[in-house]
Request: fold
Amino acid sequence: MFLLAIIAVVLGYIVLAEKLRFRRRDSLTSKYPNLDRQSFAHMTLDDAFEIQLPLAELEFPITFSTSIFFALFKVCSHPSALSEIRGGELADTTLSSKRAADTGVLITEIVLNKPRSGRNLDAIARMNWLHDRYRRAGKIKDEDMLYTLSLFVLEPVRWTERFEWRSLSDLERCALAVYWKNLGEVMDIPYDVLPSAKSGWQDGLHWLEEIEAWSKAYEIKNTVPDEHNRTLALATLTIGLTNVPRIFHGVGLQFVAALLDQRLRRAMMLEEPTWLTQTALEAAVALRKFLIRHFFLPRPDFLRSLWFTPEPDPSTGRYHFMRYIGHPWYINPTFTQRWNFKSWVLWLTGGYLPSKYLPEYRPEGYRIAELGPVSLEGKGIDEMQGAKQRIMTTFQGCPFSYKQETTETPHKPKHLHRPASRGDGVATQDYDSETKRLAKKRVYPNESN
Reply:
């Protein structure tokens, strides 16, 4: 009887896990009953935020955060995209660590704060100000900005497809596209090179499809072996392996190489992974997918992954980050941060723990207006205030529903136009065929058959 009771409990648990596993995804259908494939064009920016936030905090927090890290890593394979730091800033461990941390903080503040909120606007304005001097000088081309943007929206989709227990639904992919397309607009990234830039896109999925085709063509054209690629890639990997014992760095590099496609490995001049490494990775991923899909209950709301403190420290007015990969930048060394399971593992392996005795990692926290290179801390505040006002006027309720109501090019508001930087634009012949191939596979809403 005891054995039968155990079997009944186990089977009941499995049935419960099966029943609840897709509840969060399926609940979107009842929450947004009018957002079927025919009406994706009417998805608002607020809708997109509410749909994509649980993906980053509840459904796939590890995969989403890792995909963003690898998106930044992937940019290292294109020398022109990081030309402004080829003088050695990113190759210096300390400087590269801060740069990666600040970039992660800004992106997180933008994506995980409600659109038009104070912190969301501050982070966008700061990001724009930090990039503007390089763009005006022609050191960063518009096509490089567009490629980086494409990675931030495409890599979470790709990583979820490859490593998670389910892929994203069309509704979720559309939400990511709506959110990142709008961010590209407020960052003044032109979409002229995309086929439907003038006529407008049917919906977020249409835009996502075109930017994916363009991004793949950009990679074919620009992903080439380069010593600077290797220098920047190793500097970035050093950050990712900071808390891994040095004896395991070789193994870590092998697994990183296994995560990348062959073109990217060659561009970064990394060694090919061994057959054993590739097989072990694929087996681990398959096992993880199976276990989560069939035996794990959905992450409850009280265990959501929090990335930053919701309110500033009342004594300093600064925010604290709550997670880190390499060095504990902006982490408040509280009891829970220093004595959790991860901290014990780091202590045993000689990794970095948050500490008030490591002032170089700013345990007092951060102000958004101070993020960026040390030489620029606290600068650009007046420009940010003006930028926030301009950004507010660019937000669209339904980014795709207005395309037929205006003769303006929908991807780039008139008041955000700026003088073109050197090298703007990219030859279209490389991605025309890819775009046409994808277009033949689908029929967009409101088109006649």
